[in-house]
User: Fold this.
Amino acid sequence: MIKKFLKSLFTEEDKHRYYSPYITFIRNTKKKKYQHCGKHTELFGPLRLDPNFVELEDYTRLQPNVEVISAGGRVKVKKFTAIGSGCLIIPGSHIPTVGLPQYLSRTHINDTETTIVINEDVWVGARSILLSHCSIGRGAVIAAGSTVTKIIPPYAVVAGAPCKIIATRFTIEQILAHEAILYPPEERFSRKYLEELFETNYKNLRSIGTDKISSKDLLILNQLKEEKGIINYETIK
Assistant:
């Protein structure tokens, strides 16, 4: 009943032109509503977003209270990525316009709408903020409470507001081993690319990851992968 009432407040034109408040109060966990929603996605409501502006690849997860504020900008989340509780994603920005008071900024006159891409195997920590024009590289870690306003390179660990690179997720050798398990050969980063990446972006930075895992935990991990249909490429000859 509440949903029907809120929906009645907006015309079809409003729904396309304005950020529609009625949408943000719906528990958006119905996968068929999304622009794209791959297999084995996990959606934990409530989610404050318009599913028409969100694309989720296979094996992605949205934790409770993730919010996307968009009047047309898109959010693309690639495989193996998880977005923590309370994250705010805004793929658009206001452009100050003479004669336009902020009170009427919901008209989105002269605003820019972009696409925020969160690449494969990224962790976006709780209550982080992703703003227009940012992009997050494969394997990156966004520390809880960070504000991202720029392009984050692959396997970076960033923190702060605005965020800055403080470490790498893995060493080069660990990345090569990690990707040999998760990705088919044609999708993996080459050693040459990683060496150039580290020389350019990560000189003298520490790595926070580990390649140690107990036999018990490894068994659990492999069982979960098998249940979800996640291919372990390392075992394929």
Remarks:
- The CA atoms of residues 38 and 58 lie 4 Å apart.
- The two ends are 57 Å apart (CA to CA).
- The chain has a mean pLDDT of 90.
